[in-house]
From TrEMBL, chain A:
This is NADH dehydrogenase. InterPro entries: B12D. It holds the Pfam family B12D. Keywords: Membrane, Transmembrane, Transmembrane helix. The chain crosses the membrane at residues 20-44.
From TrEMBL, chain B:
PANTHER family: CYTOCHROME C OXIDASE SUBUNIT 6B (PTHR11387). The lineage of its organism: Eukaryota, Metazoa, Chordata, Craniata, Vertebrata. Belongs to the cytochrome c oxidase subunit 6B. Keywords: Disulfide bond, Mitochondrion. Pfam families: COX6B. This is Cytochrome c oxidase subunit. Gene3D superfamilies: Cytochrome c oxidase, subunit VIb. Component of the cytochrome c oxidase, the last enzyme in the mitochondrial electron transport chain which drives oxidative phosphorylation. Its main location: mitochondrion. It is found in: Mitochondrion.
Length: 81, 86
């Protein structure tokens, strides 16, 4: 299929930006879906791993940009049991 | 260890930032602290230790959770019909 695309792009060079942006969009969307799926907030296996967020380090950063929060100095709050 | 917790409980103002729940929706934070409070009570009383450090979790969930939820869950725990694992 990629050979077909390459042949068509050589015939109509205006298709190249179109392929580029389509692949950028689809690739970005699927990468973000993968990020959501492997995030610690989704429970895939209720029996073996029912609360994956409890296994996180207290300085774990999920967001991309940390504006005011100083993530390095966070510690666990409650008592251990 | 328990002196540090007593200090923290004495100086408690509100629920601190929890990196496990960074977004606006704090539902899970509320429920997790409620569960942690009951689990802490059960674990420490099973070991025969003092359960007062668990007060931390109670202060946090009382800060975060709506009172109606807390009332409903407390009734369910008393009935034995609470759906969470405590």
């Amino acid at each position: 299929m990629f050979r077909l695309l390459a042949r068509q792009a050589k015939k109509n060079p205006g298709l190249i930006p179109q392929f580029f942006f389509i692949s950028l969009g689809l690739g970005g969307a699927s990468l973000y879906l993968v990020r959501l799926a492997v995030s610690p907030y989704v429970v895939w296996n209720k029996k073996n791993n029912p609360e994956p967020w409890s296994k996180l380090d207290p300085s774990y950063q999920y967001k991309f940009v940390a504006v005011t929060t100083d993530y390095k100095n966070l510690k666990k709050d409650g008592p251990d049991y | 260890m328990s002196d540090a917790i007593e200090e923290k409980i004495k100086n408690y103002r509100t629920a601190p930032f929890d990196a496990r729940f960074p977004n606006t929706n704090q539902t899970r934070n509320c429920f997790q602290n409620y569960l942690d409070f009951h689990r802490c009570n059960n674990a420490l009383s099973a070991k025969g230790q003092d359960v007062s450090p668990c007060q931390w979790y109670q202060r946090v969930y009382k800060s975060l959770c709506p009172m109606s939820w807390v009332g409903k869950w407390d009734d369910q725990v008393a009935d034995g019909s609470f759906p969470g694992r405590v």
